């Protein structure tokens, strides 16, 4: 038997830390031990004190001050530093026994999940190195995005990008469900759980915005860029890509409701166990980060 872990990811403000707190509380209530790892070098207030805190190794504030970097470049610097000092994680995680669920609370900068190979390297170390942790990713997307469908598809694309990049068991969560219940009809909500491109066609609230003003031929005019037909075509192409891959579906999460947290945990447990039962796969070749830190804040 090997160790178990969940990597809690998603854009800024999606509810990652709140979910981690609710998960830890739920595990406590059910007398299941857990081990909390904060990997957000900017996180400050915790409901439960982390067992490992990246800030004991490096903090975003110090990096931004000392290196003169912005928040995105600074974050990438912190993660590069973590990758150079993986013993910081390994030494503590080595001592964690198999009955613990290891919860990794990640930062919200979207760059980390989409176009730098830092996370795959970290995941590879955790899953395939000597630690041999059986991991599942939990990717959170705010359910209030369903009100703004292009935003919802953009978020769904980032979830898909993380799935493709990390190649690990993956559970996508529509978080903050308490905020949309009552605002979105149950049958409409179902269409966001398994997103299909038709959602954009039915988006009557935005149809007006997508119509181009007759005679407005400047493709870069504010109206055309923000709400014009090219914007609509781009959204449709993104939605079609997601539809074609047919990879992303969501579970609903209301972190304030313990039954909801328990149901999500069951999926995570199942995903981990299913993966454990499969043959181990060959690791991918390591890839180097090819972006400068300054580029991240442009
Ligand atoms: N109503 C409601 N609010 C929530 C829920 N989960 C989180 N929030 C609120 O959303 C805000 C952001 O939540 P966090 O848990 O800090 O989000 P995060 O993803 O960790 O944010 P970053 O660390 O900045 O990336 C906070 O004000 C939370 O109280 C939820 O299930 N329901």
TrEMBL record:
What top-level branch of life does the organism fall under? Answer: Eukaryota
CDD domains to which the protein is assigned, alphabetical: GPN3 (cd17872)
Species whose genome carries this gene: Glonium stellatum
Question: What's a single GO MF annotation on this record?
Answer: GTPase activity
**Known PANTHER family for this protein?**
GPN-LOOP GTPASE 3 (PTHR21231:SF7), XPA-BINDING PROTEIN 1-RELATED (PTHR21231)
Q: Tell me if Nucleotide-binding is a UniProt keyword of this record.
A: yes
* UniProt feature, compositional bias: Basic and acidic residues: 276-286
Outline what the protein does: Small GTPase required for proper nuclear import of RNA polymerase II and III (RNAPII and RNAPIII). May act at an RNAP assembly step prior to nuclear import.
Output compositional bias ranges, type Acidic residues: 287-298
Record text on subunit structure and interactions: Binds to RNA polymerase II (RNAPII).
The region called Disordered is annotated at 276-298
SUPFAM superfamilies referenced in this protein's UniProt entry, alphabetically: P-loop containing nucleoside triphosphate hydrolases
Family statement: Belongs to the GPN-loop GTPase family.
What is the protein named? GPN-loop GTPase 3
Could you list this entry's UniProt keywords, alphabetically sorted: GTP-binding, Hydrolase, Nucleotide-binding
